[in-house]
Specification:
It is built from twelve helices and no strands. It is mainly α and about 250 residues long.
């Protein structure tokens, strides 16, 4: 149990902390001082304060000030640390639009893609943010093919491709089970055409074959089997469903 004097001392020590006003970047009238404070807040892990300071800098600094693209970058970094991924993606895009030749642009493309990607949480959900991530990564590879981020962008595009394929496959499968064969065929064809390397593509072939056979599209089924044998020559399920390739007539 605290003694009265000990309790009083603890309250006196805590009082300055309790009364400390919230961080206000407006009290810094000098851009030099505000930039120093913003960086200090960021390095200290006080990302709310850093975001406020860098946001003010993006409004106060002149377009030719070399600290302006850095302010955009660290504002986006602070927003990411705060879990504000869409705000961060928007800030990276502001940097790209305002300073297309800056050395931070390839960083911004990659990091905006990652921020958008974070918001597409499952392949079954609306893929709008996944499409935005794809655009960012593809823009990076087109504009900066030799960037240090290039290989990582390719890896992320492969992950997105798997999710896009899975989403289309699941939609097609749902239509197939409801016997809406024409709609199912459209989605399975999209998986095969748009995502040829995805893990779900082989399953899309098999489901497309099932749809063709269900509505007695005999010629389409035969042609599809020819394509499946070429794409998956050693696959047991393909062999089971399609049989061996027809013998070539002797000349």
């Amino acid at each position: 149990m605290f003694k009265p004097k000990t309790l009083l001392l603890a309250l006196l020590l805590a009082a300055p902390l309790a009364c400390k006003p919230p961080f206000d970047p407006k009290i810094y009238t000098s851009s030099d001082k505000l930039f120093q404070v913003a960086m200090a807040e960021y390095k200290a892990g006080r990302y709310d304060n850093a975001a406020k300071a860098f946001e003010k800098l993006t409004l106060d600094l002149s377009a030719r000030d070399p600290r302006l693209p850095l302010s955009y970058y660290y504002l986006a970094q602070s927003q990411t640390k705060n879990g504000e991924y869409l705000l961060a993606a928007g800030t990276y895009n502001r940097l790209i639009d305002a300073f297309p030749q800056d050395t931070l642009v390839d960083d911004a493309f990659y990091l905006s893609g990652k921020a958008y990607q974070h918001e597409w949480r499952q392949p079954q959900l609306d893929p709008t943010y996944g499409k935005s991530a794809q655009t960012a990564f593809e823009s990076l590879l087109t504009t900066y093919p030799d960037s240090p981020y290039a290989q990582r962008a390719k890896n992320e595009l492969d992950k997105l491709d798997e999710w896009f394929a899975e989403k289309d496959y699941d939609t097609g499968y749902l239509y197939l089970k409801r016997k809406a064969y024409d709609s199912a065929i459209i989605y399975f064809k999209d998986v095969i055409r748009l995502h040829p390397r995805a893990a779900k593509t082989r399953d899309a072939y098999l489901m497309l074959l099932e749809a063709y056979r269900a509505i007695k599209y005999t010629e389409d089924a035969r042609d599809l089997c020819n394509d499946m044998r070429k794409a998956y020559p050693n696959d047991r399920e393909v062999l089971k469903q399609c049989g061996p390739a027809p013998a070539t007539p002797a000349t």
